[in-house]
Each structure stands twice: as C-alpha cells, then as structure tokens.
Amino acid sequence: MVFKNVLDLLEEERGETAQSTDENKSILQESKKGLPFNIKEFSNELHRKSEKKNKEYIQFSQNITAHDISRCIRQILYRIRSTEIPVYADKWLPMFMRTIIGSSIHKFIQDNTSQFTEIEVKVKVPSLRFSGVIDGIIGNCGLVEIKSCTYSDYKKIIKSKKPRIPDFYQMLAYKYVLENFLPEIKENNKNLRQNRYEIKFLQFIYVAHDIISADIEDFSSALEIIRHTKKLLNSKEDDFFFMTSLILEPNNFDFEKYESYIRRKIDAINNYLNNNIVPSLDDEFINKGDCYFCLYNQICNNQ
Q1: Considering the domain boundaries, does residue 137 fall inside one?
Q2: Which of 36, 162, 208, 238 has the CA that lies 20 to 30 A from 17?
C-alpha cells in the first residue's frame, strides 16, 4: 500500500514537471531567451541604445564644447537648440563600441600614472556658453589629451608627427579658455589647483585600439599595418608599440594664429544662437565633410 502511494506520488511529480517544462518552453519562446547570441539582434539592441543615448545628450547639451571647434557650425547650432530629427541613432553602430573602448583607454592611463598633476578637469565658461573636460594638466604649463584611434590613423600620425586636426583644435580651445577665462572657470570648479595657466606645450597621447578601417580588406593587411607601425617606431621589443606621444610647442606651431580662428568661431556660434539664425551654406564654418555621419543631415539639406 505504501509502495503504491510512492508510485502515485512519483507519477504526480512527473506530470507536474512535464507541465512546468512545457510552460518554460513557452516562456522562452515568447521572450527569445535561452537562444544563442544573435548578432543581428545585437545590432538592433545597439541601434535602440544609440538612439536613446543621442536623444538624451541632445536634450541636455546646451553648451559649445571643445570638440565643436572642428565641427560644422550648423551641426553645433542644431544640437544646442535641441532640434528634433527623424532618427537619433548613429549611422555607423561600431562608433558606439569605439566610444566605450576610448573611455576605457582614458581611464586605464589616468588611473595608472602619477605624471599628471590634474586629471578630468572640468571647465565651464557661461559667458561663452562653453564647457568641456581636459584629460590631464601638468603643472600650470602643459595640457594633455588622450586619444584612441585606428592603426591606419596611428600610422599617419607617426609618419607626419602631427596630431589630427580636430584633436589639435580641441586642445587649443582648452588653452584659450584657461588662459583667458580662468576666474569664471574657477567659479564653477573650486578644485583647480593653479591661479594662473601659461600653457607652454600641448601633449597628445595616441593609442591604437583596433584595426577597423575601410582601407583594410583582410586580416593579413591588418597585420602588415601593425608590422609597419612597429618598424616606424623602431619598437620591436616595446610592449607599448601601440601608444605614442606628440608634443607641440609655440616654437614649432603658431598657436596664436589658430586661437584667432577659435575665438571667431565661438563668437559666430553665440551670435547665431542669440539671433536665432541658421547660417547660410557659404558660411566659413560650414564643413560639408561632416555630412555623412551628421544626425542632422536630412533636415539640413531641406533648409
């Protein structure tokens, strides 16, 4: 009798388990969980996240940044005005991945050196509608910018011994505001250590983070670029052959000439904002090279 009861219990449990398994299968099918990783679905997820990230950034972005100095002036004005656009997602989703990689490289260098006297220095100049973050400062005379790039860009930088143009303008913008608007900056950042900055050099730390590039057709081409880069650096035994440093000083670069451009562009942006004007396509600060990746491409072409 006891044996029969045990068998009955086992049958009941088997029935409940079978029912539970069927329910779980149904849930998994509905939620698509438990299935292998799907790159297409991942791309769709990134698209949604990119859209959300960009929309939030545009909604709360009310200042000119140092990055803007090399960007098309219409793109800057549309963003600061929180202009509505049809699609907020990045046109090229790997850009999302590169942003994460770049942030990690910044953190790795900043967390593992004592050579910077100040890091992640926030600068805000309300009178210019300007804000930004300086990667590193050395004493009161040196600014440091950490940049990640592809190996193809890295090779060009090493050969030319010059920074990329947008990076140069970004650094020079920080030099300009630190030297000319420090009291206003210090009102918004009490942690600045210096009472005066006289920038004698701009230092660019470039780190090659990947080999994704339109001019690379196969993996062997990528390896050849890396081998060639090592040869250029004469760093066969160097563990950090993918990292290089460039220093610009007033004796080899006319900083004042380029600072004049920065002043004029910031003034132009503020003038257009104050008067609610969209600059014409022949404006000196229009940059048609930005059009492909620009989120405002569609509405800009209609004006």
Answers
A1: yes
A2: 36
